[in-house]
Design a protein that fits this description.
This protein is α/β, with parallel strands linked by helices. It has 12 helices and 22 strands. The chain folds into 2 domains: 6-22 and 242-425, Alpha-beta prism (UDP-n-acetylglucosamine1-carboxyvinyl-transferase, Chain), CATH 3.65.10.10; 25-228, Enolpyruvate transferase domain (UDP-n-acetylglucosamine1-carboxyvinyl-transferase, Chain, Alpha-beta prism). The protein is 30% helix and 23% strand. The strands form 6 sheets. It has a 4-stranded mixed β-sheet, covered by helices on one side. A 4-stranded mixed β-sheet has the order 4-5-3-13, covered by helices on one side. It is globular.
Length: 427
């Protein structure tokens, strides 16, 4: 995408489109860690090329891992370290990639040396103390450099002893996923318990599935989770499915603009919990057709719903855009943890949805969206890729929607606006 400060979305008629979104960011970054820790060589196919995955690859390179990245073929060849990060020290600057800083904080505890992990100003506001506390329970020396409980993080590593740890579940499931990814390479068995409610549970299920694919076993998939250690990941060829969070924008496009959109490469059996976004659209009145290798959403008159989106919180912004076009209000609940994402997503949504004319009740754990007559607006994106992509959907029907700083979508989907425009060209 060219370097532009804003983009105006062009309304389009009812859709008849088929699309395959790029590879899953969440699976790509998990597979990169497993391949890096593996014994032998791995080939990842269908890998996502975006800021977040590039930050992960560069971080792993600084830890001494070898990569052959073919961006055109979307393949990444990784030579693993068999559980022992080679670099004796590293100063990692990891942007605003939450998965990267959390996964690598746990991974460097397996090394031997001093490691510092930092990011953007926003990353320095994002909590990580719960992960550090759990690592300390497992015998690691991991601290927040400023004592704020946020990055920068410093790890003095001598290998991860193992044992039992309890991790808070109410801020991010990535803390638990980070611990799980590192645990097989600990010196002794690791038992992980969760304190309180675990948010975004499907992402932990995804982590366990990717770990199994690379040859690691867990004693249980229920809590407390026991990971026998030490054991080795094994290099393999691993295919990465399309990103279900990205697919939500195209499913929502059919709901908002009418017609139908088919997303290829996803099914109800996907590793990604965000395919359940289609259940929300079905509740709102859309028709959802599920095949073995594709999902189609057909737009229908929409009605407001009351929904707990804790398990699929990366699609809260997408559903909020759809809710503007429903008959009656929509209430989204139990997603207070998204205030700790790239931005405070609840506050940002409330501000930007009001610009369209909607009546918004911002709540501690979500929001209520009451549709009103809509009009165009210039939308701020808060350096949050999901704000840009979700709010752009409104412009498929409402003239005059301008998205500021559209380049922020490069975090996970650099070609999003090109692909969105192509939907209209297929009708």
């Amino acid at each position: 995408m060219s370097r532009i400060d804003s983009i105006e979305i062009q309304p389009i008629g009812p859709l008849q489109a088929t699309i395959r979104p790029p590879g899953s960011k969440s699976i790509t970054n998990r597979a990169l860690v497993c391949a890096a820790l593996a014994r032998g060589e791995s080939l990842l196919t269908g890998a996502l090329e975006c800021d977040d995955t590039q930050v992960m690859i560069e971080g792993l390179r600084q830890l001494g891992l070898a990569f052959d990245h073919d961006r055109i073929a979307r393949t990444i060849r990784v030579t693993g370290c068999d559980g022992h990060p080679p670099a004796a020290s590293a100063d990692l600057v990891l942007g605003n990639s939450g998965t990267t800083i959390r996964f690598l904080t746990a991974m460097v505890s397996l090394g031997r040396g001093v490691y510092r992990l930092d990011g953007t100003l926003r990353m320095r506001e994002r909590p990580i103390e719960d992960l550090l506390d759990a690592l300390r329970q497992l015998g690691a020396d991991a601290t927040s450099e400023t004592g704020s409980g946020c990055p920068p993080v410093r790890v003095h590593a001598t290998g991860l002893p193992g044992g039992r740890a309890e991790v808070a579940g109410n801020i991010s499931s990535q803390f638990l996923s980070a611990l799980l990814l590192a645990s097989p390479c600990a010196a002794s068995d690791v038992v992980l318990a969760v304190r309180g409610e675990l948010v975004s549970k499907p992402y932990v299920t995804m982590t366990l599935a990717v770990m199994r694919a690379f040859g690691v076993r867990t004693a249980s998939d229920d809590f407390p989770l026991r990971v026998p250690a030490p054991q080795s990941y094994h290099g393999r060829i691993y295919a990465i499915e399309p990103d279900a969070s990205a697919a939500s924008y195209f499913f929502a496009a059919a709901a908002i603009a009418g017609g139908n959109v088919t997303v290829e490469g996803l099914s109800r059996n996907s590793l990604q919990g965000d395919v359940a976004f289609c259940d929300c659209l079905r509740q709102m009145g859309c028709e959802v057709l599920e095949g073995d290798t594709q999902i189609t959403v057909q737009g229908r008159p929409l009605r407001g719903i009351d929904v707990d989106m804790n398990a699929i919180s990366d699609t809260v912004q997408t559903l909020s855009a759809v809710a503007l076009f429903a008959e009656g209000p929509t209430t989204i609940r139990n997603v207070g943890h998204i205030r700790h994402k790239e931005t405070d997503r609840i506050a940002a949504l409330a501000t930007e949805l009001r610009k369209f004319g909607a009546e918004i009740d911002e709540r501690a754990d979500g929001l209520r969206i009451a549709p009103k007559p809509l009009h165009g607006a210039a939308i701020d994106t808060y350096d949050d890729h999901r704000m840009a992509m979700s709010m752009a959907l409104v412009g498929l029907v409402v003239p005059g929607v301008v998205i500021r700083d559209p380049r922020c979508t490069s975090k996970t989907y650099p070609n999003f606006f090109n692909d969105l425009a192509c939907l209209g060209q297929e009708t």
